[in-house]
From TrEMBL:
<dbReference type="GO" id="GO:0016137">
    <property type="term" value="P:glycoside metabolic process"/>
</dbReference>
<dbReference type="InterPro" id="IPR003737">
    <property type="entry name" value="GlcNAc_PI_deacetylase-related"/>
</dbReference>
<dbReference type="InterPro" id="IPR024078">
    <property type="entry name" value="LmbE-like_dom_sf"/>
</dbReference>
<dbReference type="Pfam" id="PF02585">
    <property type="entry name" value="PIG-L"/>
</dbReference>
<protein>
    <submittedName>
        <fullName>GlcNAc-PI de-N-acetylase</fullName>
    </submittedName>
</protein>
<dbReference type="GO" id="GO:0016811">
    <property type="term" value="F:hydrolase activity, acting on carbon-nitrogen (but not peptide) bonds, in linear amides"/>
</dbReference>
<keyword id="KW-0862">Zinc</keyword>
Amino acid sequence: MADLQAVPEDWSSALVVVAHPDDMEYGGAGAIARWTAQGKNIAYLLACRGEAGIDTLEPSVSGPLRVEEQIASCAAVGVSVVEFLDHQDGVIEYGVPLRRDIAAAIRRHRPEFVIVSNFRDTWPGGGWNQADHIAVGRAAVDAVRDAGNRWIFQDLGLEPWNGVRYVAAASSPLATHAVDITDSFDASVASLREHKAYLAALGGDMAEPEPFLRHAAEAVGERFGGVLATSFELLSL
């Protein structure tokens, strides 16, 4: 595999768009912590509240709990603006309504950088990706264009935004770039640990934040100078 390039850092504002609570914590949270420490302004937009993510809890209980956990998780990496849409966990559909909601957020936040989770069919290790991740990631990429077209979603009453310079997908099997998270690795672990109820129900290797994230960061680092790192697919639009 080819070595990874450094993600550009000549920007000041970003919007993270993911499907569920915990999505960014299993990939890019170390980069988020690095960037907020640099003074960059980063906000999160989640398509749902993760209400269908814990088998032992009814959605009416799980949803509010996972919202609280995500807000605490974001605080651990220096993010205070966390917004949730009302799409239904587990059956999020790619389409105009989702694109519209994400485009509205892009017009409101006016980011230079949009960060999504992996929307490819598989993960780097070959495992099959989940439908919500694919739908939200692809809708977010399309919403970047939508947000800049004043003749699309005119009813939003928001000025178009063409200022997105970079779009990147965390933990993509087609990764092209990476970020050194050596100094922000502990923050990424702390961020994932805030998903207490989810981790307790999950079990297995993914329920152990430090070793799981360290293994992943070391694997990416093998293609990025031997440091702890997290990877992104930087997209050309």
